Amino acid sequence: MSDIEATAAAVAEEAAFVRPNLQRQMWEGRAVKNNILTTLTWIIAILAAIPLISVIYMLLIRGGTRLFGSDIIEVLTALPPAGFEMGGGIGPAIIGTLVMVAIATATSVPFGIMAAIYLAILGPTSKLAGTSRFLAKVLTGFPSILAGVFVYAVLVVNFGYSPWAGGVALAVLMLPTVVLAAEEAIAQVPQRMKDAAFGIGCTRTQVIWKVVLPTGLPGILTGVMLAIAGAAGESAPLLFTALFSNYYLESLTAVNNPTASLSILIYNFSGMPFENQIELAWTASLVLVLIVLVFNILARLVGQPKV
């Protein structure tokens, strides 16, 4: 067969070849199923977002009037009003909440990271590690009020209501979240990085401090931020440990001083028959939501992988 005949045969064979239709067909079985499931997913997502959107909308309408009005400085700094008094603010509650969350963070984060290092590196397959993981997962669903009762029996009975007792109660609730998140972040560090560090003569302590913790830091900080966001909105443990006060926290050394917090202020003022206190309860709710939102946004930003 000559070259011309071979070329003609190839052209004829190509012309006879029917190319498959790769375009998506609307009524094809897989396409119909995909469209139905996608529509259902959007409907469920919208239905799930309705309560959240409605709560945020109501907070902005009822609490935004005082928070974003001309008396914003008074609202954020003044003492809470008493009885028929008008005006006032939520300053002591904001400070008290931040102080107790800071105490809880300083207490739970070091212990949580040390526990995570043991669970992920030092003894991941030991019986102690298995038991610790199980207890940490159980504590994630631990009723928060029981943490308050426990700290009440240990600290409040002996030393009185104080920000320290409130911070310890919040630390008990934060600890399992920090431990599990930090363990997962540390476990995600590539083994070849640790092997390379051991290969150049690093000790186990140097590998942990110089390789594992810096590499897993975004995941660890994400867990810490989420734990802080959850602790900031707790109210039940503070009823048993910090109680409430209408005044600013004078000193952390005053171990028997009741301490104001946003969640307890909301609880107290929302049941009062005075319109001014009810408005401040809505304002405090909006401030608390904004604080939690800030911590959640920080967790998302910190946890984003570096490209």
Description:
It is a single chain. Helix content is 74%, strand content 0%. It has 307 residues and is mostly helical. The longest helix has 39 residues, at 29-67. The protein has helices spanning 3-16, 29-67, 72-77, 91-122, 127-140, 144-159, 163-187, 191-199, 204-232, 236-241, 262-270, 275-303. The protein is flat, with a radius of gyration of 29 Å.
Q: Which short descriptors sum up this protein?
A:
single chain, flat
Task: Summarize it.
By secondary structure, the protein is an all-alpha fold. Helices cover 74% and strands 0% of the residues. It has helices spanning 3-16, 29-67, 72-77, 91-122, 127-140, 144-159, 163-187, 191-199, 204-232, 236-241, 262-270, 275-303.
The chain-level mean pLDDT equals 85
Tally of helical segments? 12
- Reported CATH architecture of the largest domain: Orthogonal Bundle
Q: Alpha-carbon distance between the termini? A: 58 Å
CA radius of gyration:
29 Å
Largest sheet data: none
CATH class of the largest domain: Mainly Alpha
Topology:
Blueprint (H helix, E strand, L loop, with lengths): L2 H14 L12 H39 L4 H6 L13 H32 L4 H14 L3 H16 L3 H25 L3 H9 L4 H29 L3 H6 L20 H9 L4 H29 L4
Helix pairs in contact: 2-12, 4-7, 4-9, 4-11, 5-7, 6-7, 7-9, 8-9, 9-12, 11-12
